[in-house]
What we know:
Elements lengths: L5 H4 L3 H8 L9 E3 L4 H14 L3 E3 L4 E9 L2 E8 L12 E7 L4 H19 L6 H10 L7 E2 L9 E4 L5 H14 L5 E5 L7 H8 L3 E6 L10 H10 L6 E3 L3 H11 L5 E5 L2 H14 L19 H5 L10 E3 L3
Parallel strand pairs: 1-2, 7-11, 8-9, 8-11, 9-10
Antiparallel strand pairs: 3-4, 4-5, 6-7, 10-12
Amino acid sequence: ISFEHTALLGNTLDQIAREKAGIVKPGVPVVSGLQEDEALAAIAEVCARQGSPLAVVGRDWRYEPVADSLAGQLFDVACAAAASTAWPQGCTLPGLRTPLLGSHQLANATTAVAACWELAKAGAPIDEASLRQGLANVRWPARLEVLPQPTVAGPTVVLDSAHNTASARLLVASLASYFPGRPVTLVFGASNDKDVDALLHELVPMGSQVIVTHSRHPRASDPATLARRAAAAGARPPVRVASSVSQALAWALAASPPTAVICVTGSLFVAGEAREAWLALYPDALAPGDPAHQAEPMDPGWQVSQTLQPSQGSETIATYP
């Protein structure tokens, strides 16, 4: 639980946690992922009032990383104690695998394991083999997603839909872990109801160059305004302003050395359009059932942008301040 949708949920972690804890039903077990103390205290209070048993990752359920690479993560999970046995081997599960990247995804996966354990105890037909298969096969587009580049050697393109301070901070830490020492080209766009300054404060320092843009969504922030804010957050000049996500990605590919990482982030809408643009560039890069195949047609400028020449098409370079 972090600061998001504050206009609806509240301005403190306590308020936000209590709103989210509205889902707690009397007597029904609750599983919580890792939480800040303030949020966890609010959840625990609601659960106590509802008579709902509370299991917390990091306290009642623990995980241990075993191996980590761009192919995925291997980890062990165990619970501190089990009131009853849901699976024959108990709640010690060594050698779980997930293709999701980032240490935070191990906490998320452990939360899912704990929830499955509670469901199995209640009689749901969830066995260990199904749980292992589910974790190993999970797909989560635009969550620290490294796009496949099947034919041309070039920069690594990473998509992440980080749209609040906490997720942006995790993204920066994850990129530093998986791609240490490599230059980062930041492609950024955000919705106008987000705390853009806080996002840029986290993201801009990692970028050797910054390109701002906007998605097709009507809530997308004006990229010229984003450019000024990026400059105020310390972006190295010039900050480039692209008229579409596809144009921004084309510029990033053209301007980044092969050793660079291009990080497209700030909005799920921006990340989604970057996947569409990648599919236009590499038609076989994404699986046939991928949602990008059913997306709206790309803007006409992308056909020009495929040449990866930054001088083609319209371009705005902001030289703020």
